[in-house]
Specification:
Order of helices and strands: HEEEHEE
Oligomer: single chain
Strand order of the largest sheet: 1-2-3-4-5
Helix content: 25-40%
Number of strands: 5
Structural class: alpha+beta
CATH class: Alpha Beta
Radius of gyration: 15 Å
Shape: globular
Number of domains: 1
Low-confidence stretches: none
CATH topology: Trna Endonuclease, Chain: A, domain 1
CATH architecture: 3-Layer(aba) Sandwich
């Protein structure tokens, strides 16, 4: 049985997927998992065709709460290393995309469970190196 943290994560990832599809992206894969790393979402933009490896960070909030917390800051160096290894593996397994430009994005999803609303902050093209 999934933990409450995992349940919130699943809801946030589903919201993130709907958001990127609404913005013209095609989702290629969700929850790509290897023992050395995970990618929450792999998507491709249509014009220009560019791969986006998206890390989703969720936070439960309350209505009218000032969102000054930065879940993006929870992508620590060890997570970046694991993400880098997972991306390299994904690219090796999907050779038809090897010549595509790609970037890493962080999508922060703020859930207000009482109001049944979500706010999204999409930080594009983060740098993986320290």
């Amino acid at each position: 049985m999934p933990s409450s943290k995992r349940k919130v994560g699943n809801v946030c990832e589903t919201i993130a997927v709907k958001h990127i599809v609404k913005h013209g992206f095609v989702v290629l894969e969700r929850n790509y998992l290897r023992k050395w790393g995970e990618i929450d979402i792999v998507a491709i933009s249509r014009n220009p065709s560019e791969l986006h490896f998206i890390e989703v960070k969720g936070q439960v909030t309350r209505e009218n709460t000032l969102i000054d917390y930065l879940p993006e800051e929870n992508v620590h160096s060890w997570k970046k290393r694991r993400l880098w290894r997972a991306i390299q593996t994904w690219l090796a397994e999907h050779s038809k995309f090897e010549d595509y430009d790609w970037q890493v994005d962080v999508m922060a999803v703020f859930l207000d469970l009482e109001a049944k609303k979500a706010k999204i902050r999409w930080t594009k093209n983060i740098i993986l190196s320290e």
